[in-house]
Amino acid sequence: MRMLVITHKVCWRSSNSPSGYATDGGFPFQMQALASISDELVVCVPIRVDGDTSGEVEMGAKNLRVVELPVPPGRGIVRKVLLPFWAALLLPRLIGEARKADVVHAPIPGDVGTLGIALAELLRKPLFVRYCGDWSRNGTTAERLWKRYMEFAASRPRRLMLATGGHATPPSPAHPEVRWIFSTSMTKEEVDARARARELPASGPVRLITVGRQVEAKGTGLAVRAVAELTSRGREVRLDVVGDGPRRSAFEDLAAQLGVADRVTFHGQVGHELVLDVLDAGDVFLFPTSSNEGFPKAVGEALACGLPVVASAVSVLPSLLEDGAGIVLREVTSRAIANAVEDLSSAPDAYAAMSRRATELAQTLTLERWATEVERAIDGAGLVCHTRSR
Fold it and tell me: How many other C-beta atoms lie within 10 A of the C-beta of residue 141?
């Protein structure tokens, strides 16, 4: 099977990667997993020529080929206006790649992924769409349109529609052909290597970790305020913040204003292994997000390291943690976070049980299992006769 992926994920050239390209986040791991079920994986992505490469992850599969696209110009409404002209210039190249593909894969939300959907429909190609946001939210007209399209297309021949997340009921009960798929960035080897049932530290501070883009919606400000709240209660805690973004300096200022700058460490954007190392040194993972989450890979990484998770009740998090791997916040406030951490810190047996459950749950969230589920779904939807040369 030759699979063509068309996505907005910005990548860059890298001499460290077998494919010659790299990017950050979980995307390259999932591309490598898709390459493992394909004879050839062709990835059409915007390539930037300069900028920050911290947190670089190689796109290292031997049968993975990258097709360079220029980064779409502008932002916001300007980008929307200019995108048709950008797409028109690239159309011959994209049509050529799509014609040769057995399956077109379009991750959305994203305007470039939407272009991939349009190409597959135009050329009547088998199509695999993966919705990576929070299916339960309809914040924009575009989100509603994407979901309505997926519901319409799911029952058509040679169409596979997967939504990132997971619940007992399908994403759209009226259209059960739309199915859930989890998300991950860890191989079984990594999960096995990091797995260990933890106990509360006998002495010293409880180490809290949060990982994500440094924007208000991810909840770093709440985590910093929770540290101040716990400190005022006489609790010894430390907070490690991993990730970068436009609000990082504001959160650093907040820690200083609250008098806890010496208790909060901002690591910035770091690579995958360093993220796992920071998690491995921690005790509790905080994820008080209010953003549009599908299946947060950072939570899966924390579970793999045996960390109980304190998280908000968004997307898949309630169903993911309900079996005892963490605490789901009824209200997302710094006081509620502090209360949850204090409860865990005061209950060694409950903490140890949550840690054991976290490692058990992580065993079900590996890249190998993700690739197998995608492969079975592709076969089941009849997108190709065989997903790989046998």
Answer: 8
